[in-house]
Design goal:
Shape: globular
Distance between the termini: 45 Å
Low-confidence stretches: none
Largest sheet: 8 strands, parallel, barrel
Order of helices and strands: HEHHEHEEEHEHEHEHEHEHHH
Number of domains: 1
Mean pLDDT: 95
Oligomer: single chain
CATH architecture: Alpha-Beta Barrel
CATH topology: TIM Barrel
Number of helices: 12
CATH superfamily: Aldolase class I
Strand content: 15-25%
CATH class: Alpha Beta
Number of strands: 10
């Protein structure tokens, strides 16, 4: 199978993607909502979800639930799952392992600026080479210094842009990284030279604020989002996906997305 065909399982015909990140068990104890989301996976897909990022175990446990979505399998795991502050992962599975699960893509993190960044770069390089061999798209999650914003420098546009480009130089076909919410975020997208999926997003006061952030991401050139808890922990996950679909695939406004969310919530409460 060609990379183009596998990419078409991750991105819709418009070249954009709503990707649900369900790989939290590899990185954190904060996994509430992940397993509960499985029961509504068909409705999420029906409302615009394109792909999921999962662990090896989840790909096996919930194979039927993921049948209608593009499948990205996480190839690395935290070296300190009980302390998410530690920016270090170790290689866990190969491209061949992922293909046996029916994966369309593999993903790993790299941490430019971290104390042991060379190890994560080498892991990304090895995965990218193996992915090229098997015609599998490789997604590189490029996070300067750490998983989270840990200092002003780690959230500077120049720093994130350079980290995104490092992922591309290591061989990535897709970049997953954070944006700052500032107009100059466009420079991050331009530096990547690959389709960018914006990770998660900030914790916002309201769902409208979150939709406003996602609209900003699309306006500066992102190809979609790869989001976890902003969907799985919401009281109305289906409505969040429907709202994202309004923005990402229908070029709607944040206000239109919010209205879509509200309509979905009304049906849920009826």
């Amino acid at each position: 199978m060609s990379k183009a065909r596998r990419l078409s399982h991750l991105f819709s015909n418009d070249g954009k993607s709503i990707t649900l990140a369900l790989d939290g068990y590899y990185f954190s104890t904060k996994t509430a909502g992940i397993d509960q989301t499985m029961a509504i996976m068909p409705q999420l897909i029906e409302n615009g979800l394109d792909a999921v990022i999962v662990t090896y175990g989840m790909a096996k446990l919930y194979a039927e639930a993921f049948a209608g979505a593009g499948l990205v399998v996480r190839a690395d795991i935290s070296t300190s799952v009980y302390d998410a502050r530690i920016p270090r992962t170790t290689e866990l599975l190969s491209v061949e392992d992922a293909l046996k699960l029916g994966a369309d893509s593999v993903i790993s993190m790299t941490f430019p600026g971290a104390a042991d960044e060379a190890a994560s770069h080498k892991m990304a390089w090895d995965l990218a080479k193996a992915a090229d061999h098997w015609n599998v798209p490789y997604m590189c999650e490029t996070l300067p210094y750490s998983y989270h914003v840990t200092s002003p420098e780690s959230n500077q546009i120049e720093t994130i842009a350079m980290a995104a480009r490092i992922g591309t130089e290591l061989g990535a076909d897709i970049i997953k990284t954070r944006l700052t919410g500032e107009p100059e975020d466009r420079r991050i997208i331009e530096a990547a030279k690959r389709p960018v999926l914006v990770l998660g997003g900030p914790k916002t006061e309201t769902i409208l604020d979150y939709f406003t952030y996602v609209k900003h991401c699309m306006d500066v050139g992102a190809k979609g989002v790869a989001v976890g808890r902003n969907i799985t922990l919401d009281e109305n996950p289906i409505g969040v996906v429907a709202g994202l679909n309004t923005i990402i695939h229908r070029n709607g406004t944040a206000e239109e997305a919010y209205q879509c969310y509200q309509n979905s919530l009304a049906l849920l409460e009826a």
